[in-house]
Specification:
2 copies of one chain form a homodimer. With 150 residues, the first copy, chain A, is mainly α. Helix content of chain A is 48%, strand content 3%. A two-stranded antiparallel ribbon of chain A has the order 1-2. The radius of gyration of chain A is 23 Å and the shape is elongated. Chain A starts with 7 loop residues before the first helix and ends in a 36-residue tail after the last helix. Chains A and B meet through α1, α3 and α5 of A and α1, α3 and α5 of B. The first copy, chain A, binds a DNA duplex (30 and 30 nucleotides) through α2.
DNA sequence: ACTTTACCTCAAGTTAACCTGAGGTTTTAT
DNA sequence: ATAAAACCTCAGGTTAACTTGAGGTAAAGT
């Protein structure tokens, strides 16, 4: 009953993803399996959690790539325990916080900004909620009072 | 000075998108242009706002498709005015609100949930922050106290 | 006038995240 | 002992949102 060997079909049903997706994830290094006599995949139970974590992370807009990166922090030898997962959770919470923050700013400025006459690609909080000004270009051009901007 | 005819290059520089992207958007019906003598694209000034709105919406995770849909609400004959844009803004604010809500729930339940023993594909708030239970399948299977779930 | 620079079109390539199908083997159910 | 259901591999397809490139015209700078 420990470390049962689950079939793809079972895992697929349990997690709601397609078998092909499991193949895909395996190929991407996100999950692992061993093979039985007849070359069929078998999984440990922790694959279920892995997959649910993948799904969760995807909801946050995190790419498989970066999920993969994060998973590198998990132990390979032993089955990850609560602490291991909790750490991932922490990481993603930060990301989540930032995302919520960005979106909140965006929302708060949306009405005032999108409807106003000052929409600027370079300086508008809508376009640049937080962060990155576009690098290139001969200096910021502001849509503004100086030009009609509709 | 009204309804100036802007070139692709100018629009590209102003908005920070590539010329090819403008072609692409036009082909998708998101922006419009007319041609000059030499068959070159010319834009009205409102294209700038359109593009910034596209960018904004994309930050919200809204697809071009649905942006296109929303844009259908804009007047085609006349240049959209503040009211027109404000209405779009309203729509997206709702979506934003929901998104923020989802993410917040997700964040709040993340630590408690991902680290616990009850992670369930079907019922866990991580996996289903708000909404949709997976349709298919012979009834929800819960990872839980009944089975070791790591 | 001449040479860059900017545009144009159309076809094809790119990345992410999967899905589909063909052709063949293993398990499982009866 | 079979037939059906589940697997396997590998190649190629799909969608979104663009980007790149080839081959050629137009506009701008000097």
């Amino acid at each position: 009953m420990e470390d049962a060997n689950l079939s793809v079909g079972y895992v697929a049903k349990r997690t709601g993803v397609k078998v092909s997706t499991l193949h895909f994830y395996e190929q991407k290094g996100l999950i692992r399996s061993w093979r039985n006599q007849g070359n069929q995949r078998r999984y440990k139970r922790d694959v279920l959690r892995r997959i649910s974590v993948i799904k969760a992370a995807q909801k946050l807009g995190i790419s498989l790539q970066s999920i993969h990166q994060t998973f590198l922090g998990l132990p390979n030898e032993r089955t990850p325990d609560k602490n291991d997962w909790a750490q991932l959770s922490k990481r993603w919470q930060k990301q989540l916080d930032q995302q919520i923050n960005s979106l909140t700013k965006l929302r708060d400025s949306l009405d005032g900004c999108i409807g106003c006459g000052c929409l600027s690609m370079q300086s508008c909080p809508i376009y640049n909620p937080d962060d990155v000004l576009e690098e290139e270009g001969p200096g910021p051009v502001i849509l503004g009072r100086n030009e009609s901007a509709d």
